[in-house]
């Protein structure tokens, strides 16, 4: 077992552990904070996988924007920080079984695939992955159209979010 | 080196945890948190397939970026909906938001 | 412009005038009559140019002005239509153009142009007069003035088309257009019931003839494959037609075709037995009577027979029928005319009689004489009608003056002494009347009638000759009776005392036509008249050249000349003698019921045709067939359908379709929905859980099926 494998195991445990805290903890603010830990772990995984650009974007977008958005949402929808009563619904045991079944099914299907235990080739040291990604995103031969569609989607989501969250009864927003 | 299987198992485990969150949490915001976990699991898969396949094919990374965009949109709209519902019905408990029944 | 192009253009102005008036100028009276008269003038000008060129062209009979176009494609050839002016066409065109133009001008005065609108006039009734600013009753303008000019323009188009046609098809088209206009113009004052009935009667009666004529045309086309005169009158075509037998009366094809065409003429030219419509047609305005029912349309029937003479003359049986009908009509109508008191009806019967003269002339083979009488008659009869219109107009003036509207301004016994009050009308009417009577040497009527008698005599048709001579005597007699009663003596009523000469628009045409009524006869003076070798008139030579063989002139006969002289002068003298002192119908010894009632022909037709038709329509078709039989069958169908319907409803539709299928499926759907409702809890996580379970189950199933099995 190499150092890298040991490092991976530690990161993996952090990710799974914090993820479990996200879905189980009673305090939603804590859940959002645990999500940040998970997301940070995933960013580390991206770095292990030589996807440096994505690692940075993960930190900036997910942790910097989305997670913060969650914290705001939680604060806006709760007058007190901690919810009363159980945070899981009555059928949580059935859900747990289903989730485990899903994990089992996925695992079983993956291990029956012959590329399952594949080992990665060495990453070519002179390879400019970020530049290639940039070219791919704006090249007409590659992904410029999905890229542009994604931008339109973001715009639509922006407008939609503003429209939905706008409160027509509070006259203050007009002033 | 780390085999691909480790990433895939980790991803599957993260996905299942997210799924459990989505199905079990009462709070609508927490359901969205679960969805974020599932999306991250998918991203791990996309990036590891890129890394363990042909690194000159950028589809994996591009897909991951588009997942970011979708996630951002989803969170923005989802949270706006939650806030809107909270304003009208004064609750964020998913089971109580059952206007669409029957 | 070439003559052919000009001929094409002759009928055009009147039809353009018709559309212009109907579409644009119908609100403006002055503009309407200007357009109509302008169009008539253009056609007149074209006709005159063509006529002059025709006279100046040698051998026009062999090589007429002709031009044609392909019109309707048939299987392997074309139906051609075109124009043709040969000598006959030229002389007909001449008198048509003149009479049409004159009558157009006359109509302006006749319809009181320039007078105020009537106090109580309404469209469809003759004008009743207006009160001017001095409180006097004056004539009022016709309310449908523009409509009248539109109709007569359309009529002129039909007549010109008929004359310039080179084939029977366009001739028939013009013929029918004139029939339509005749109907419209007889019924011009449509609010009068008598006018309506007369219009319908004229239309229906001529229709009888037209159907036969169309049959004749169809037969001719099927026999020869052409309707153009040029093709039909080829010697070999005529020979074939004359030798092909038909199963009817043992006539040859030529004879049968000729007979059917002649029946068309019987209707159009009001020959016995289809003459009944023409006297009633006098309900129309007088210019209409003059133009349509004296000068042009009724002449068109004779023109058609003259035109088809080479074909018709092939079969002696047909010629006998034609001669008989013509002769009989001539004497028959003349006897009726003697007993009529209405100034226009006398002329109407006179027209029938004179047309009979022409038909009789054709029947004995007097081609040129018939054509000659056709032309002269058109002039003097138009003159007489216009003169009578002028008289009526003058009398209406008197009626307006006295205010007694019960006085019939057309009754000759209410007139008398008008020669002093209406001098121009009197002199022109006198000229027309003498021309009609055949006043010797001077008038056109003498030369044409004399020629008919001469041909009948020289051909040995003594029955025809004698009958026509008697008819000519009667003609002179009733003409003089008319003149005596109308113009001579002293006024018999206050209305007649206040009669008034008509405006120049009416007297000018009278004068122009009077010139022709005298002068046109001189173009047809026979060569060896009285044994003098005079310079002969060009007419017989010119018109005769239309035929393949120019007919020889009949030799001069003192018997014929004496007869003509005797009947004309005798008739005029006795007419004057008998009526110079007659002041009331009771003193008229010829007012015997048989003649007065026109031999009861109308009553006979009413009994034979009209009443049975009414009975057939009202009782048989309507009461029995329609209401009894057809309605009965329909009701039966209705009831049967109703019964079948209610059986299906009660025993199939209600129990099976409604209860079982309709209500059954509804109940099943309702039950299913009620039981499935709890699934729709509205809880998002429950939905997701169910979806996931189903997804897992399907995935497992697919995996089992695809991979393991």
Structure in a nutshell:
Chain B has helices spanning 4-24, 28-52, 59-89. Chain B is an all-alpha fold.
Describe this structure in words.
The complex is a heterotrimer of chains A (175), B (102) and C (709). Chain A has 175 residues and is an all-alpha fold. Among the domains of chain A are: 1-83, Four Helix Bundle (Hemerythrin (Met), subunit A) (Up-down Bundle); 129-166. Chain A contains 6 helices and no strands. In chain A, α2 runs antiparallel to α3. The longest helix of chain A has 26 residues, at 52-77. The mean pLDDT of chain B is 87. The longest helix of chain B is centred in the last third of the chain and has 31 residues, at 59-89. Chain C has 709 residues and is mainly α. Chain C has 2 domains: 3-110 and 144-525 and 539-596, no CATH class; 604-668 and 684-708, no CATH class. Helix content of chain C is 70%, strand content 3%. Chain C has helices at 3-9, 12-25, 29-56, 87-110, 145-164, 168-186, 193-224, 229-232, 235-243, 253-268, 277-280, 286-295, 297-307, 309-312, 316-338, 343-363, 367-402, 418-421, 423-437, 444-458, 462-487, 494-497, 504-519, 539-544, 558-579, 593-596, 601-676, 684-708, and strands at residues 65-73, 78-85, 130-131, 137-138. In chain C, a hairpin with a 4-residue loop joins β1 (65-73) and β2 (78-85).
Distance between termini of chain A?
Answer: 64 Å
Largest sheet of chain A: none
The residue-averaged pLDDT of chain A reads 84
3D shape of chain A = globular
Helices, strands, pairings?
The complex is a heterotrimer of chains A (175), B (102) and C (709).
Chain A lengths: L2 H22 L3 H21 L3 H26 L14 H20 L17 H10 L5 H22 L10
Helix pairs in contact in A: 1-2, 2-3
Chain B lengths: L3 H21 L3 H25 L6 H31 L13
Helix pairs in contact in B: 1-2, 2-3
Chain C lengths: L2 H7 L2 H14 L3 H28 L8 E9 L4 E8 L1 H24 L19 E2 L5 E2 L6 H20 L3 H19 L6 H32 L4 H4 L2 H9 L9 H16 L8 H4 L5 H10 L1 H11 L1 H4 L3 H23 L4 H21 L3 H36 L15 H4 L1 H15 L6 H15 L3 H26 L6 H4 L6 H16 L19 H6 L13 H22 L13 H4 L4 H76 L7 H25 L1
Antiparallel strand pairs in C: 1-2, 3-4
Helix pairs in contact in C: 1-3, 2-3, 2-5, 3-4, 3-5, 4-5, 4-12, 4-17, 4-23, 5-6, 6-7, 6-12, 7-10, 10-13, 10-15, 12-17, 13-16, 13-17, 15-16, 15-21, 16-17, 16-20, 16-21, 17-19, 17-20, 17-23, 19-21, 19-23, 20-21, 20-25, 21-25
